[in-house]
Amino acid sequence: MSRFATIDVGSNSVLLLVAERTPEGRFEAVRERAEITRLGRGVDATRKLSAEGMEATLQVLESFAREARELGAEGIAVSATSAARDAENGAEFLAAAKARANVTVEIISGAMEAELSFAAVHSDFASDAAGPLLVLDIGGGSTEFIYGNRGGHVDFRHSFDVGAVRMTERFVGADPMTSEDRARVEAHLRDTFRALPAPPPGAALVGVAGTVTTLYAVQHAIHPYVAEQVHGGTLSVGQLSALADRLCAMPLEARRALPGMQPKRADVIPAGALILLESVKALGLDACRVSDRGLRWGLLAHRFGAGATSS
Question: PANTHER family attached here (predicted)?
Fold first, then answer.
């Protein structure tokens, strides 16, 4: 069976997927890895990728590309999202990635990011859904909402410039978060999400990416992280509200020690929890399903699936 790889370079983390394409055209994971490198550190204020964020990300990108090749990947597709889109020096990062990791990084649009995330969710959740699917992708720099039907057609998509890193850097000035800081985050999110159209009747919400999976892992004290115990789970509004209260009131060192917490994500997880909570509320829903498979899986099908080229 042929093997292919995708690397998702986000504002907060870098994710690797190496998978085999079966004769039937399905993909089966051979290896999945994730590292938090904070490429989007400071981009909201400076509009530039920091030297520290770029170096940390390039080191992981080199390592992941080497690992994919050692595992026999015939092709590697690499995407970058919010931080690289927003940064004035994004071209510098792309050139360095080519020189050091011998990969071509494609900066994808918010619309393409939404399409790929929806495709990944649709393949896993459409058969269980009684109605339309809504996908929520919370990143470090942006949050995408995608409305689609069970047939895979996307009816609405929008990328908002609210992410866990961006909200933390913009509004949070103390540890633990003060009530005033929390109120500012919540007010900004509510104002931003007013632009969302009402979801179609009977829609089910699925959240993807590290904020959502981490919140589920913390809620259920899943340590070490096991994807199969997270994928397909559900977080209710009541659970999210209590979890947000707990995380916002807890100092950083205590958050880092929580079972299920990625220590490098602990500083931005309170803002991430508020984004998820306010998103569910804005949609008028009472729960969110959890997907461990996000953009990297959609990119895999887009680049290397049936009918796609592997160049």
Answer: EXOPOLYPHOSPHATASE (PTHR30005), EXOPOLYPHOSPHATASE 2 (PTHR30005:SF13)
Angle ∠(268,271,277) on CA atoms, nearest 5: 140
| 156 and 81 belong to one structural domain | no
Euclidean distance between CA atoms 78 and 60, whole angstroms: 13
Q: Do 69 and 216 have their domain in common?
A: no
For residue 155, which of 108, 115, 109, 209 has the smallest C-alpha distance?
115
Q: 147 CB contacts (<8 Å, ≥6 apart)?
A: 132, 133, 134, 154, 155, 156, 157, 197, 199, 200, 203
- Conformational region of residue 258, where left means phi above 0, alpha means psi within -120 to 50, and beta covers everything else: beta
Q: What is the pTM of this model?
A: 0.89
Query: Residue 40 is part of which domain span?
Result: 2-107
Residue 310 covered by a domain:
no
Q: What is the Cα–Cα distance from 71 to 57, expressed in whole angstroms?
A: 21
Per-residue pLDDT in tens (0 to 9) along the chain, 311 residues: 799 999 999 888 999 999 999 888 889 999 999 999 999 888 888 899 999 999 999 999 999 999 999 999 999 999 998 778 778 898 999 999 999 999 999 988 877 888 888 989 998 898 787 789 999 999 888 899 999 987 888 999 998 989 999 999 999 999 999 999 999 999 999 999 999 999 999 999 999 989 999 999 999 999 999 989 999 999 999 999 999 999 999 999 999 999 999 999 999 999 999 999 999 999 999 999 999 988 999 999 999 986 554 44
Confirm if 6 and 294 have CB atoms less than 8 A apart.
Answer: no
